[in-house]
Every structure is written in structure tokens, then in C-alpha cells.
Write a structure and sequence with these properties.
alpha/beta; binds adenosine-5'-diphosphate; 9 helices; binds magnesium ion
Length: about 250
């Protein structure tokens, strides 16, 4: 089964605000795609639907072929354990060590008490596994550092290490580079897209920077006021389409 995510004619509204209107989207295994659009266009809502944090009001959301709205809590947990979520604020626990934050990547598999036990009795194997991951991300020396002593760019790498440690089928990342300078954003995207490719992990991200989206993602989905304006190869996306996408202005 190769379809990872499938939205069919989805509507989401918050009070009177239509966050998504008639959105249909299919993501196949191993794809890398980027959702772009002005702020308030529905990017976070779209990603939130994909991992079942939000439910569609009409239409359907299927993840790994399963209707998210019909899943029991237990099955939803299993589906989520296959989806790594990298939120905009990274979701790291500041006063934990880097090692412990990365171990949280498998919390969905081992449960809350399993996680506590792991933190208390981290085996050499686990620590070694995490160290190897940090090595690939260029920060192996940070293994036992307190996470809040790291720079913003290093913390982003920790969030990515945590996502990879989860061994997910897909990574969903909501503007993960919003708060760093373009040079650092570029190296992080380079790393994430390369690692995802090597591991065969599907990658779906939202980005505010169109240029970065174009540079690193083969497929672009343009959202405007909750509607998909285009969904096409980045190579076929013109300057004019991008200008029009943002022409409505920011909120
Ligand atoms: P983006 O991520 O592209 O900035 P969002 O998905 O966050 O857009 O938001 C889409 C629209 O839905 C916006 O108008 C936003 O104000 C509204 N919205 C999103 N989440 C909520 C919420 N929890 N409650 C009320 N309105 C929301
Ligand atoms: Mg957002």
C-alpha cells in the first residue's frame, strides 16, 4: 500500500472562519512535498489533519489507508506512532538533556511508563543509537547537554533527531525553520530532505519561504484562504504563480 495520506474534499472551520475549503490531496510513500501560502492560509490546519490532531468537518482524511475519523484511540495512537510531528516551536522539553528529548521520539511506541523507565535506565545501546543519530546531524557532542543550553539551530537538529529516532513512515513539519536565518534554514532543510530520502521517509512540510520550498522540494502545494490554488512540480511553478499566491497579503 503506497498511499500515505489522502484528503478528499475536506472542509474545516473554526467558528465562522473557513480554514480549509474543499481540499483534496494525495501523498504517496517516499514523496517530499511542501505546503506554501500566506499566513492564515491553512497550512497548519492541513498538517494538523494529517496526524489526527484536528478532524475534518466534512470530507475524509485517510492515513495509511485508514479513515482517521473512524479510528479507535488505540488505533489512532498506532497511526501516530508512524507519523513524526515537528511543530513550529519544536516541542522540546527545555530542561531535559538532548538524549532524553530524542528518546521521547519513541514515547508513542513504549507508552508513558515505558518512557519513564527508559529515561531512568537508558541502556548503552539506546544512548549509542542516539549518539549515532546526532553524529549524522552534526552535533554528537551535545548528547548529555541540557537542551536549553543549545542554540536555536542546534535545537532544530535535536527535534529532527527525535523525529528520526521514532523511525516513522512520514515526517510532518510545520514551518520548522521559521525562526532561524536563511543560511541556517538552508542547511537544515538540506539535511532533513537528504536523511528522509536515505531512510525512505515521506516528508511533508509547510514553509513560509517560497525560495526554500522551491529549492528543496520537488512538489509544491499552494494554499490561499483555505483552498489549494496549485499542486504541481516545483519546476513547473512560475514566479507569477508564486506572486499571485501571496498577492492577497498577509494577515
Ligand atoms: P497558516 O498555518 O497557513 O498560517 P492556519 O492553518 O494556522 O494557517 O489558520 C487558518 C485559518 O484558521 C486562519 O484564519 C486562522 O486564524 C484560523 N484558525 C486556525 N486555528 C484556529 C483555532 N484553533 N481557532 C480559531 N481559528 C483558527
Ligand atoms: Mg501555521
Amino acid at each position: 500500500m503506497n498511499t500515505v495520506l489522502q484528503l478528499a474534499d475536506v472542509e474545516v472551520s473554526f467558528g465562522g472562519i473557513h480554514a480549509l475549503r474543499g481540499v483534496s490531496l494525495t501523498v504517496e510513500k517516499g514523496e517530499q512535498l511542501c505546503v506554501i501560502g500566506p499566513s492564515g492560509s491553512g497550512k497548519s490546519t492541513l498538517l494538523g489533519l494529517m496526524n489526527g490532531r484536528l478532524l475534518a468537518h466534512t470530507g475524509s482524511v485517510h492515513v495509511f489507508g485508514q479513515d482517521v475519523a473512524a479510528l479507535t484511540a488505540r488505533k489512532l495512537r498506532r497511526v501516530r506512532s508512524e507519523l513524526a510531528w515537528v511543530p513550529q516551536n519544536l516541542g522540546l522539553v527545555p530542561n531535559l538533556r538532548v538524549l532524553q528529548n530524542v528518546l521521547c521520539g519513541r514515547a508513542g511506541r513504549v507508552g508513558f511508563f515505558g518512557l519513564l523507565r527508559r529515561m531512568a535506565l537508558t541502556s548503552m545501546n539506546e544512548a549509542e543509537e542516539v549518539r549515532a543519530l546526532l553524529e549524522r546531524l552534526g552535533i554528537p557532542e551535545k548528547l548529555y547537554e541540557r537542551t536549553d543550553t543549545l542554540s536555536g539551530g542546534q535545537q532544530q537538529r535535536v527535534a529532527i533527531a527525535r523525529a528520526l529516532y521514532q523511525e516513522p513512515a512520514a515526517i510532518l513539519a510545520d514551518e520548522p525553520v521559521a525562526s532561524v536565518d536563511p543560511g541556517r534554514a538552508r542547511s537544515l532543510l538540506q539535511l532533513l530532505t537528504t536523511l528522509a530520502k536515505e531512510e525512505g521517509i515521506t516528508l511533508m512540510m509547510s514553509l513560509h519561504h517560497v525560495e526554500l520550498a522551491r529549492e528543496f522540494f520537488p512538489r509544491l502545494v499552494g494554499l490561499q484562504a483555505g483552498k489549494v490554488i496549485f499542486d504541481q512540480p516545483a519546476s513547473e511553478t512560475s514566479e507569477e504563480e508564486l506572486r499571485e499566491l501571496y498577492a492577497v497579503g498577509e494577515e
